């Protein structure tokens, strides 16, 4: 082996070593907090204040306390309802808006897209006061929007809908226009084109935006804390924040860790499931010219 070949081999090996070391470091930094939460959730007593990288005991006491004390199971269900409704409404409205903004020619399309995108750039705290007054004011008969799940759904969609519209508009704009023209020649209506032509091709984008919308609604805290005031209507993020004792020395860290693990596991499962759906959608939704 010549000297140049040896240098090339050593340099290639060094690059791959650095690459894999960076990947391992990134995985450890990303996974370790969740792993440590799992380990801590199985501990109790003084073991909670010891640094244990491996579980020294496997006690389900913390999980039992989470499920039996308070209203955490109901709060968990509330989060599922809020997140699912936000995803369904956002995708339904975003698909129709994306079709109009990407396929229908009218004056001011670019301005409308910029306005939609700019709405999602506002921080939550900037619109909180106005939304609070609006939510407190709206009531229909005996139903009051304040302290109800529709209040959080409405607030979450203010930031979720612009994001989904922007992503789906960009994706739909890149689809071949010949497909739409062929459907129009066959007499298809705009809704039929959206439902039978675009939706199968937009499956990867729908899964991605729907998953991100679900995660955003699931992790939302500020609106839920402000608009929900009773244990029966609170979501899991607020419920975990309120899992505290009477003083700073009585905070049930084990229970909090168990609740955090229970809240995080569904998101991990969804990501793994939809990751496969995205790959299958990309391979099955290709268009051959």
Shape: flat
Quote the CATH topology of the largest domain. MetI-like fold
Total domain count: 2
- Overall mean confidence score, pLDDT: 83
Structural class: mainly alpha
In whole angstroms, how far apart are the ends? 48 Å
CATH superfamily of the largest domain: MetI-like
Question: Compute the gyration radius: what is it?
Answer: 25 Å
Give the CATH architecture of the largest domain.
Answer: Orthogonal Bundle
Oligomer: single chain
Q: State the major sheet.
A: 2 strands, antiparallel
Biggest sheet, strands in spatial order? 1-2
Please report the first level of CATH classification, the CATH class of the largest domain. Mainly Alpha
Query: Percent range for helical residues?
Result: over 70%
Low-confidence stretches: 281-289
Order of helices and strands: HHHHHEEHHHHHHH
Written description of the protein model:
Helix content is about 75%, strand content about 0%. With about 290 residues, the chain is an all-alpha fold. A two-stranded antiparallel ribbon has the order 1-2. Helix 2 (about 60-70) packs across helix 12 (about 255-285). The protein starts with a helix and ends in a 5-residue tail after the last helix.
